[in-house]
Fold these 2 entries.
Entry 1:
Amino acid sequence: MSWGTELWDQYDNLSFHTQKGIDFLERYGHFIRDRCLIEMEYAGKLRRLVKNYQPKKKEEEEYQYSTCKAFKAMLCEVNDLAGQHEVIAENLQSDVIREINYLVKDIKEERKKLLQDSAKYVAMINNQVASLERSRKNYEKAFKEAERALDNFQRADADLNLSRAEVEKQRMNMAIKNQHCEESKNEYANQLQKTNELQSQHYKALMPEVFRQLQELDEKRIRNVRHFMAHSADVERNVFPIINKCLDGIINAANQVNEKQDTILVIERYKSGFEPPGDFPFDDLSRGGESTPLVLPGSGNTYVSSGVGAHRSESMTVKGTMSAGKLKKRVGLFAIFSSNKLMDVCSSVKNNLSSSG
Amino acid sequence: MSWGTELWDQYDNLSFHTQKGIDFLERYGHFIRDRCLIEMEYAGKLRRLVKNYQPKKKEEEEYQYSTCKAFKAMLCEVNDLAGQHEVIAENLQSDVIREINYLVKDIKEERKKLLQDSAKYVAMINNQVASLERSRKNYEKAFKEAERALDNFQRADADLNLSRAEVEKQRMNMAIKNQHCEESKNEYANQLQKTNELQSQHYKALMPEVFRQLQELDEKRIRNVRHFMAHSADVERNVFPIINKCLDGIINAANQVNEKQDTILVIERYKSGFEPPGDFPFDDLSRGGESTPLVLPGSGNTYVSSGVGAHRSESMTVKGTMSAGKLKKRVGLFAIFSSNKLMDVCSSVKNNLSSSG
């Protein structure tokens, strides 16, 4: 079934239908364009998220721990994931939107050309029919004049009062009019033949060919819609393996998180290397103030020191070996420490002790 | 290696470090929360896109064509795809964000309790050391008084001018002071024993236990970061099969697009069922205006009609059989038609023809 034969009289509907088809294709293109924008926006938001959560310069020290390293690695993967949505948008742009734009332009031009052709054919047949009508009227007029000339001759021939010359004039006139009528009839016949030939060609060849090509154009459009729709799904699916790898990357990053390793790092970072203070010695004044360890029943402690004061000053020396920076940090930490109310109590106890010691 | 033994003197750093750990966990929670928002926004945008491109009521007639049907089916799939991103957001919310919030609350409380315990232990040892210092000073004072009493007694005993009663008084005083010094010494020894016992317990049991529990708490936090990170990737991956099905759905929809079927639908929709006009007949006036087909050499056409005018009126009847609605539509289509300049020429030819016929 072809538009050329079945829809020979549906020029306007075909013009309308093919325009609707182009509108649909453009609308589909706009849909993909809007989808692209959403993918780009999504990717942009993911990238901004990653940027917002990048470790700050001052936090670099923390990024030796496995949790922080994993978080940083995960941010990289989310960034790559964002990139894959940009790939979707770029491929939709190059493989679908651009191709749709080309196709719409082609189809519009082709449709316009075909409609112009068919308008030309309609004008041709209409002109021919007008010529036919003119030649038929000429024939009608010549026929009437020939009839009148015959009538005049017959009347003249019957009128015995008229001269032979007059009768001969009417016969001549009748012959001329008859001749003219014959010529007009032939011209009319010629025009009729031309018109019928052209009309037959118009309805059987020219217009069917235009409509056949319009149908082909519409089928081309529809085939391409199928292609674009399937391809846009493929574009989306094609990034799956890489998105999967990004997710594998996040799982790998997570598996690098090691709580034992991290708490050992804390030891390495903060360990002073000092031993906890030993027992206070017994300050036996009866032996001239010589400090002796307090030997208690069952206690194996043999620590000897030069007295409580000496012990205190030793722990001061310990503090003195710390770097200035470390001391500064400790001050900072004490500040945090002191924000706790209970800690205040503890701290004041400490101060009392050091002032009384 | 344990924080309890290795970091016995790093209370402040451990307080600082565990706070940093909680900050990290909260920050990770905020990251997932922000990611959720992006997923929800993406899903919302896809849903709005689908809504914007839903066929309008007035376009329903077009939706009999396979391209339009496929487009509608594809919109459904994109809507389902949006739903899967909502599933990601919902599962991140319930499985990760909520769990992180619970964990942060637990760890904060546990850490606070441990720091309070350790502050209590520090206060205890400091109080004990202060008591020790007081008892040592009492002992020192009593020792000096005993020394002075001994001195006084010896001086009195050597002075032969003094009465025995006076000497006896000094001996008594010396004995009392000695007794008091012995008592103070014992008290000092007791306090020293208590202090050393408490200090040993403090550094070997109480504080190590607090630090060990802080380490356990930190390890629990780190283990959970691993778990949350891996789980959030799984949440994302879990929707893949359904997203894949959505894409399959789009490909299936595309494959339903059938150009041949659609152009046949156009024929069914617009076909008038009329035959193209036949030849114009020859209006032979010499046979009294009887219309005869123009018999041309080699033409098999035997069409007979009652003249050009009759033929025209027949084609009018043909038009008369069309429904009013269809005629109205055709008027509308002619309006489109006449917007084309070339069509104007063609149309005016047509009008001339019908006025002259």
Entry 2:
Amino acid sequence: MKRNIKVERLNQRPLEQQEIELVERKGIGHPDSVADGLAESISRALCQEYLDRFGAVLHHNTDKTQIVAGRSKPAFGGGEVICPLYILLTGRATRVFKEEEIPVDTIAIKAARKLLVESLSNLDVNNHVILDAKIGMGSSDLRDVFGRKVPSANDTSFGVGYAPLSQTENIVYNTERELMNLKKSIPAIGEDIKVMGMRQGDEINLTIACALVDRYVANMKEYADTKREIVEHVIDFAKQFTSRRVFAQMNVADNIEEGSVYITVTGTSAEMGDDGAVGRGNRANGLITPNRPMSLEATCGKNPINHVGKIYNLLSIEAAKQIAAEVQGIEEVYIKILSQIGKPIDEPHIASVQIVPKEGVDIKSLQDGATEILDEWLGSIPKLQQMLFRGELSTY
Amino acid sequence: MKRNIKVERLNQRPLEQQEIELVERKGIGHPDSVADGLAESISRALCQEYLDRFGAVLHHNTDKTQIVAGRSKPAFGGGEVICPLYILLTGRATRVFKEEEIPVDTIAIKAARKLLVESLSNLDVNNHVILDAKIGMGSSDLRDVFGRKVPSANDTSFGVGYAPLSQTENIVYNTERELMNLKKSIPAIGEDIKVMGMRQGDEINLTIACALVDRYVANMKEYADTKREIVEHVIDFAKQFTSRRVFAQMNVADNIEEGSVYITVTGTSAEMGDDGAVGRGNRANGLITPNRPMSLEATCGKNPINHVGKIYNLLSIEAAKQIAAEVQGIEEVYIKILSQIGKPIDEPHIASVQIVPKEGVDIKSLQDGATEILDEWLGSIPKLQQMLFRGELSTY
Amino acid sequence: MKRNIKVERLNQRPLEQQEIELVERKGIGHPDSVADGLAESISRALCQEYLDRFGAVLHHNTDKTQIVAGRSKPAFGGGEVICPLYILLTGRATRVFKEEEIPVDTIAIKAARKLLVESLSNLDVNNHVILDAKIGMGSSDLRDVFGRKVPSANDTSFGVGYAPLSQTENIVYNTERELMNLKKSIPAIGEDIKVMGMRQGDEINLTIACALVDRYVANMKEYADTKREIVEHVIDFAKQFTSRRVFAQMNVADNIEEGSVYITVTGTSAEMGDDGAVGRGNRANGLITPNRPMSLEATCGKNPINHVGKIYNLLSIEAAKQIAAEVQGIEEVYIKILSQIGKPIDEPHIASVQIVPKEGVDIKSLQDGATEILDEWLGSIPKLQQMLFRGELSTY
Amino acid sequence: MKRNIKVERLNQRPLEQQEIELVERKGIGHPDSVADGLAESISRALCQEYLDRFGAVLHHNTDKTQIVAGRSKPAFGGGEVICPLYILLTGRATRVFKEEEIPVDTIAIKAARKLLVESLSNLDVNNHVILDAKIGMGSSDLRDVFGRKVPSANDTSFGVGYAPLSQTENIVYNTERELMNLKKSIPAIGEDIKVMGMRQGDEINLTIACALVDRYVANMKEYADTKREIVEHVIDFAKQFTSRRVFAQMNVADNIEEGSVYITVTGTSAEMGDDGAVGRGNRANGLITPNRPMSLEATCGKNPINHVGKIYNLLSIEAAKQIAAEVQGIEEVYIKILSQIGKPIDEPHIASVQIVPKEGVDIKSLQDGATEILDEWLGSIPKLQQMLFRGELSTY
């Protein structure tokens, strides 16, 4: 079998040299990210349960969690949640296999509670959340599950990936990660963070929204001080990724005179008016990048066995990273992989590699290396699946 | 006020000349599109109600509808729906204004029923759907609503648009539209269609998934005949958009020998296992285009007054179309507009226009024309809003 | 087999001769009655479906419907429903039998819609109701269903019945029925009626609550006129049942001066604040009678095959009626039948008949007749079931 | 003001001397009792919150909780819950008062979790329950709340009570209570108990259903032993209440040969197929007594301020107890109190006292004492309310 891999030169100016660049990351406590996290954690828990019981992962897709915002009344020193968040876990999963019933809903709820505790440290999961589940019946065919064959693609769809990250992308991604570290010393930092990066030539502007947690902020002065401290930290932190000038602002809609600032009881805006849904936030690489090709397939919650919308996105990213790192002479590499429903997942309809070579580099000199790496990855989907089971691949 | 509009040359090979191109469109009966349609129709109904009662559109966002799939048993000649679809309408809307209560849920349900009837002609809305609503309270500030001022951006986010469509894009988009026409003579065509277009050099491959409606298909032979007829029609139809070779396949996972084919009772896969959610399908221009910049903001269901995620996406598309049509010498034009929360929506943080000029054309000769058109559109947001109220802008 | 039937003299003054008597009836549009009606109509529809498909009624119990009230703004001439009623249909039913799936939810929803239309003529079922269903899986054992044996009691519980009705009971019951007739000429009469009858010696006081329908009442004067007309009609109507003095009042909490009267958009208080549940309203004979023995088993929605809570209540009533009618010398007869789980339903643990004989009548002269009739009924449970399938027995 | 209290002789044989008597009690873990408990605990928590915030109890009624059964797979030594129970808390409550928002849903959920933990010690509230809330808006009128006036009856309805308990009633009630004690030494006893007592002449038969908890029962032999131990304990225990012969059976539907016995994971049948609802189980005195007058008003969850369905039931029971205890010469006393909507709750439409005097006692000698005690209670409704706030009155 020879895979349909096409490597082509992409004749465009590398993003780093373009005038304008937009990059966004939603933090792990953003309502859309929480929905993503729930979907993925439920899928992982189901994988583990299926493996434990049957030695194989059965059919499931839990990629449609919906968070309906609550209602709260934050106040310096500590406010209250008036109406709990309503979270609907949906999707489908194999409920019966070899005449054994699998407690799908119980597993889903357990996994969801765990994720909520991890992602939203100030949320009282017992009393501030209504956790509902409507998980339908999926079915798994015995032959498919225990056959030796490579699974067939569940759908005709595609995944995309690219490498390396630009400076702005690195900054945006890592700023959110850093704030989660900083939270240890500044507990007022809530997990609901949005970092919007806009590079205009050699100026990088970061607009950060961060839900501060009311019980850790005594008054308006502390609020303003905390904000200043965070902004200064971020600007300083960003310097390791760029020599460009970095500016940052936080919670720009605040009106301190009128007493209108961004505080929350729980650290997430889902407590008051902001709904969340799977697949509406970060792409599988943790970023939203309108200057880059993106897939609209939600990665989170999909089964890692035959759902190409998940597998091809993650595989494209990993392969692109490796190509960019190991094949010399590459400025940027973009991968798109298209499946055809019913065909083996390791034989995509087409796998397109587009490369922006470094100046003076001939695309021909790069084709073999790139092809080989991607081919290797396509042949190693089970390895990728193992990484997913073990939680080694982040998906949002 | 001078708007921050930057026009830059995009130094890349036009998509039409690249080797590989992927394009997808989900038809109006695809679960994700139905969710989009519901979200948008509810927003429109609310806009109309608010305008009728108060002369102004009040705050709302209804962009989080969730469709949980049902369970069905299709059969040639007519099967049955075992478990109804569950549809959860969520979001928030102003429920009380000037001490008057607005029947938000009743309006939402009425609009949702209407959309379902229009989008899924074979669905029995009375008995095959559980229509639930959890729409929270939004609030509208009297000064904001009736002030003379331009509304402020609700968030820091961006919209993107481009023009013109490529051949493949045109084919993919119009194929689905054409099948909705063809439905008049072939009633077995369900509204749940997915057209995946893959262009490799000068070959365009269309992979069509189309849920046939069981009551209009007597047996396996009729099924095969209908499929053949549709595929032939599509190939013929596509010729008006390209001189490239066009191939098409439909329902490729069918196994006619084993009797496993894609028929449905209602014309949508949501009847059996396929969930749907807002913002997971087509972008505002009706396509999914990984080779193009895309926004992840769901356009459907957002309020058209201050939600930049909606306004900037639609505005970028319209402006790009006009620039491509009226400014001579343009191969491709890409627009990205970034807001900053709290700032007037007609004064974006940045509006970036990237142009791939026709060969030999100097970007300088295009800048004034492009700037002027985009500036004009940014100054005409109320006009765009009117188009939305009147249903003149399609959003998915 | 000799059934354990005990006939005993009840040494008490007949209710008609006691000083005080309380009787209540909730009309068919009262939220609790609507819940009862939904439960029963779903059970009937399932029975019919099971009979059509398999020739036998399979296991089900749908006796737990819950109505969560909506929110409305009635107004003379026609108001509006602000938030729809939420109705949750629950219970369990056999979903798969002989490898055939039964569309339980679809059947339930269809039956529920029909009942709502019949019971609440002014309710817009499409837009004023959210109809949800969470019907669990029941299971039916092949041997039980098609065995020749009498079914076994599903539980240890009892049913009660008595006859004849007192004057006050007759008046209360028939007043509500008559208002449903009167509705043809006075369309403002809503189906949500509550008739409370209190007899003190020889005075019977009726307190009627009746939700008038706003669109048929132009103004306060019409409201007052309609009320007067209804009250006069009721007093006149009641005379056929008694020679005692009858008084009646309607909507006594009205405050016409302050403009606070009992009008509704839909004819039921469930539109605004009054929830409803199965088994909380009328007993199986259509009345609530604290002066009489009552069972707390909800009759509505239970399966008529082996649920003694349903069968024994209905059977007791029918047998009591027949005994009172056919055995000479009886003032009052009370029947209580107790099952034991797992025993054949036609062999109750005990069937107790208590008789208040007419003056001078010896209980011994009544025992054989009463025993025979009750024994006959216990042997004719299949006949009773047929009456239920055909809708000939009212249950609330 | 002279209250309309009528004391009349009830000319009937005391229940203790009648041939047949039926009595039932559902234990605190029975699905209907759990629903009752939830409803009442939420009302209590709201009362406390309203008192703390405003010094007065605001309008609410939370008497419509619905429990939809889950699905489980019990097994000796410990099985698992497959699908969690779904619990819907409904009703209405004042959400805003004096411009302050009260976190009604959060309070309800917190109270519900606490009740579940207390009532079902083997239920994993975090993972085996979906706790949903749809609590509507109630409204409280400032004048009503802080006026000096006695509250007006919310409805035209009645309460009933009687005293003393018969031997069988005492046995049935206390058997369940005793099993909750015995649970300390026999942890396999689940809280879902149903005790059905049937007295036929001088034989009292107890039929006990008790959900044993699987993790505390190693095998069938232990099951049988445990059952035997419980039955023996109960028979012995009952002797303190009667000199009649007492028989007892437990879990009579067990078929030990076929391995079909009554074990559960959580101690309640709600884990598998048995739904529960408020007001469907015990009356306010903790019993179901078809030989006694009963009210169908659910006592649990109703507001203790003006809901006569709650107040009059509890007051009738307390007054009857006191009359039976303090007025000499009484065999049985029955009280029925009827309100009229809008009238002060301490001035019922009628309060009827029916007394079965001891042999040879003239009713006239009892009338003053009975009237005085009931009049005193009607004048002491605030005292009764205080007892409810403090949880001193059991309601199911």
